[in-house]
Amino acid sequence: MLASRVGEAIAEIRRARGLTQAKLAEMINLEQEAISRWERGRRAPTLYRLQQSSDALDCSVDQLLQRGSKHLRFPVVRPVLISRPR
Q1: Is the pLDDT score of 78 beyond 80?
Q2: CA geometry: angle 72, 47, 9, nearest 5 deg
């Protein structure tokens, strides 16, 4: 689910910058098909590629992740006290 949302964010920002998938791929030294897989949610970029993409798209990694996860719900984790048997 996160992969598809991050992919949507990459596609949205890429289009807003007037870039093709091929041009973005060239800018970060990657195959165009990899960009396509990200944008279709088939694969998620690594942190390294996410950073490269944010540099090429002139945005922050946070912007890609926030746009990509704006509708995600994360579970609240609370500590649980476990008593030892006596």
Answers
A1: no
A2: 45
Closest CA to 14 of 22, 24, 4: 24
Domain annotation covers residue 54: yes
Q: How many domains does the chain have?
A: 1
For residue 51, the domain's CATH number is: 1.10.260.40
Query: Given this model, what pLDDT does residue 2 score?
Result: 74
Residue 81 lies in a domain: no
Res. 80: pLDDT tops 80? no
Query: Which is nearest to 16 in space by CA: 67, 52, 72?
Result: 67
Question: Taking 60 as the threshold, does the pLDDT of residue 71 lie above it?
Answer: no
Global pTM reads 0.74
**Chain mean position to CA 67:** 9
Residue 10 lies in a domain: yes
